[in-house]
Amino acid sequence: MENQAQSVQKNAKKSQQFVDYFNQNIVPRAQELESTREKFVNIVKIWSIIVAGITLVLAIAVIPPKITSVEALYAPLLVIAIGCIVGYTPVEFIRRVFSYNSKKKILPSLLSFWGKFSYIPPVNFYVAIYSAIKNKTGVAGFIQEITKDKTSNISINHAILKRLLDYNDVRYDDKIVGTFNDIKVELCELETAIVRRDSKKGTSRQTTFKGVIFSAVMNKKFKGMTAISNTHLDTNMLDHPRIGFDNFNATDILNIGKQLIQTAYDKKQLIQKNNELEKEEQEIKELPRSKEVRLEDPVFRQHFKVYSTDQIEARYILTTAFMNRILKLGEAYKWKIKAIFINNNIYILIDVRKNWFEMPFFKSSIDINNYKEFLNDFTKLLAITEILKLNQNIGM
Predict the structure, then answer these.
(1) For labelling alongside 22, which of 83, 132, 189, 316 has CA 20 to 30 A away?
(2) Measured at the alpha carbon of residue 192, what is the angle toward residues 88 and 93, in degrees to the nearest 5?
(3) 246 pLDDT exceeds 50?
(4) d(CA 144, CA 250)
């Protein structure tokens, strides 16, 4: 398996190696889940037919004999809407629970083909209900599960991320972390948004990013900060990201409470934490200001804007070869990408709004063809290390 972790480029030998690996390591695990999957699918089909039938009968029953206005259709439409909710919620619960269990069982072995990778599942409403039922912990268990710290296994640095995105609310989903070509890599599916409250205590939520973030710890350290974006970036936000969250959810409040309790009886720790925050704030203020970098390549300028606190370093990073690699990456993801190089980190944000890293539910778990989308997504993201040659020194 040593040579298998060296490349994700497509070739016949590599493909055959994976087929053999899948048959030997994944199929036996998937077979244990297949009978459960088939039962769930049958339940879903029967439930959907029953709910659809009852909804149709009730909708027809509430239609008035004579339709004289649009308002006369409100009742049957309401019945249909309720029927959709009643039909969808249990189906989605079953699908999410199966996905949660199958990913935990299969993904670690599947990902091992490329190197040392681990899968970290999300905590959501459906998983919280399932855990409470499975562990027989009732409402208290559900509340404990749903308010669990979802960021404990996420090493995303919001001080970096908020240079590229404006948000005060974040939702995490699947995460894959590991080492590939001697580069520490993380793939995290998440959504960021701005949540606003009006005077009537209503809320609106505007999504600012929904996709996957590729982050890597590189074997080189940058003196400044260089950002690449398919859209215009606010240089004030680049230089002075708003690290705090404007709106707190239940998890945030509980975490703040825990921190206060932990530090309330330790004055030295409280003072030390305050000094660290003040030092970090001062360091941010003293950093050089970002300016747009005017590159000579007209094709690159057509698709991306570049900002940097160090114009010379930005040009060291964005060599002709490197720009060509970024262009290939942008083309692969319909130009919906942003990237930032800072300290020894690189973050690449891919704003492709779909469900990433999904496992088959309505199709067989033991058929390799039903994993094509997952494999395609994962290998394309993993190939970023090779496309951008992140393990090579760029002479700085």
Answers:
(1) 189
(2) 20
(3) no
(4) 11
The answer, as to whether pTM is greater than 0.70, is: yes
Average pLDDT over residues 139-151: 65
Question: How far apart, in whole angstroms, are the C-alpha atoms of residue 210 and residue 204?
Answer: 17
Q: Is 331 helix (H, G, I), strand (E, B) or coil?
A: helix
Residues in the chain: 396
Distance CA 365, CA 373 (A): 13
Residue 131, phi then psi, degrees to nearest 5: -65, -40
Structure tokens at 234: 């606010």
pLDDT tens digits along 298-343:
999 999 999 999 888 888 888 888 888 889 888 888 889 999 988 8
Would residue 37 be called left, alpha or beta, if left means φ above 0 and alpha means ψ between -120 and 50 degrees?
A: alpha
Number of helices (H), then strands (E), in the chain:
14, 9
- The alpha carbon of 140 is separated from its chain's Cα centroid by a whole number of angstroms, namely 28
DSSP of 82-107, one letter per residue?
Answer: HHHHHHHHHHHHHHHHHHHHHHHHHH
φ and ψ at residue 294, rounded to 5 degrees: -95, 105
Q: Is the Cα dihedral 153, 155, 158, 162 positive or negative? A: negative
User: 32-46, 120-134, 215-229, 263-277: which has the minimum mean pLDDT?
Assistant: 263-277
Question: Which residue in 225, 171, 227, 164 sits closest to 195, CA to CA?
Answer: 171
Element (H, E) at 72: none
Angle at 345 between CA 343 and CA 347, to 5 degrees: 130
Q: Which amino acid is at 5?
A: A
pLDDT at 223 over 80: yes
pLDDT for 259 beyond 60? no
Strand segments, DSSP code E, in 62-182 are 116-120, 169-180
Give the residue extent of every domain in the chain. Answer: 1-115+122-148
- 45-97 pLDDT per residue, tens: 999 999 999 999 998 888 887 767 777 778 888 989 999 999 988 888 888 88
- Measured CA distances, 362 to 83, 84, 126, 133, 312 (Å): 22, 19, 19, 24, 53
What pairs with residue 205 in β-bridges? 195
d(C-alpha 294, C-alpha 275), whole Å:
39
Radius of gyration of the chain (CA): 25
The three-state (H, E, C) secondary structure of 204-260, written as one string:
EEEEEEEEEEEEEECCCCCCCEEEEECCCCCHHHHHCCCCCCCCCCHHHHHHHHHHH
Residue where the block lists tokens 């793939």? 187
